[in-house]
Specification:
By secondary structure, this protein is an alpha+beta fold. It has 2 domains: 50-95; 131-303, Protein Transport Mog1p, Chain A (3-Layer(aba) Sandwich). It is built from 5 helices and 8 strands; from the N terminus they run H-E-E-H-H-E-E-H-E-E-E-E-H. The protein has helices at residues 51-82, 157-161, 167-179, 208-218, 289-303; strands at residues 143-144, 154-155, 184-191, 197-204, 234-236, 250-256, 264-272, 275-283. Strands 1, 2, 3, 4, 5, 6, 7 and 8 form an 8-stranded antiparallel β-sheet that branches.
Length: 304
């Protein structure tokens, strides 16, 4: 008897059926954008807002406005102070240091084509401008000394020599001026309200080299060679600030030694190119240092 083949029976579980794809959902219909909220005036805050929050907001707005206003005011004030002199600012005013009020000072124009005294092309270091125009003007409120006007602005040599005390000094100084060819002297003087008398004398020579030689014969390190009238004993003025000296200009300043005579005398010799300037100030009591230094510096600047 023939056995029939047996069919194997599958005992595994039937597999799950694959999901049936569903049709895609329809795209959403675009909605119009929401309108931005309209800012409401402060008075129309929602009734639910706490009163405290509204008060804080008011305070913030008020202080913002105040700070902005003060910032603008502060900027304007700072600009104003920057343009004011220190003595014009309340609380910053300082006592005057005694300087005199001089008018605006400008150098006279040079003749066309003429070099300045310290130009490289000017080997003689000569001043081409009129010497009388190089004199420092008197400060405001001063009384002019007519004795120093001379004739047409030129002072006689003997009148310049009167600044020296001794007859022998006047003779020796006068002979030096003759020997070295003094061309002319221009002078100006004044007396300020406090009684300080100032005399400025400009002596011009042919060249700067000649003026330099004469300058060395009138000045010494410790004292001038020829004593000024009223100052028998003088010494080098150590208190004169060297930082105030003008470039290319030589300067020697002297002060009378205490006890002073009838007047306290200060004097300075300045050499700028072919010109020697002699500045003398005197006053009963004490001659202030600041206006003396100021006068010497300004005259030096005019010559430099």
């Amino acid at each position: 008897m023939t056995d029939e083949p047996q069919t194997a029976t599958d005992t595994s579980q039937p597999s799950a059926e694959a999901p049936v794809p569903q049709p895609s959902a329809e795209p959403p219909v675009p909605q119009p954008p929401a309108e931005p909220p309209v800012p409401q005036p402060f008075a129309e805050q929602p009734p639910g807002a706490p009163a405290k929050d509204r008060r804080v907001l008011r305070a913030v707005l008020r202080w913002t406005a105040v700070v902005t206003a003060f910032a603008a005011l502060g900027a304007g004030t700072a600009y104003g102070i920057a343009r004011m002199e220190r003595t014009d600012v309340p609380g910053l005013a300082t006592e005057s240091d005694g300087r005199w009020a001089y008018p605006e000072i400008t150098r006279p124009p040079l003749p066309s084509g003429s070099p300045g005294p310290f130009d490289k092309a000017n080997w003689a270091e000569s001043h081409s401008a009129d010497l009388r125009a190089l004199l420092l003007p008197a400060p405001e409120g001063a009384t002019d000394d007519k004795r120093l006007r001379g004739t047409d602005g030129w002072l006689a040599t003997k009148d310049f020599l009167a600044v020296f005390q001794e007859r022998s000094d006047r003779d020796d100084a006068g002979q030096l001026l003759v020997d070295y060819g003094l061309r002319h002297v221009a002078a100006r003087g004044w007396t300020t309200e406090d009684g300080t008398h100032t005399g400025i004398y400009l002596l011009q020579f042919d060249t700067g080299a000649v003026a330099d030689t004469v300058y060395g014969k009138f000045t010494g390190y410790d004292s001038p060679v020829f004593a000024a009238r009223g100052a028998a004993e003088t010494e080098f003025d150590d208190a004169y600030p060297t930082a105030a000296d003008i470039e290319d200009v030589q300067r020697q300043a002297y002060d009378e030694v205490k006890p002073y005579g009838a007047e306290h005398v200060r004097q300075a010799y300045v050499r700028a190119g072919d010109v020697i300037a002699v500045v003398v100030q005197s006053r009963k009591g004490t001659t202030a240092a600041v206006p003396f230094q100021q006068t010497v510096v300004l005259q030096s600047e005019l010559l430099g």
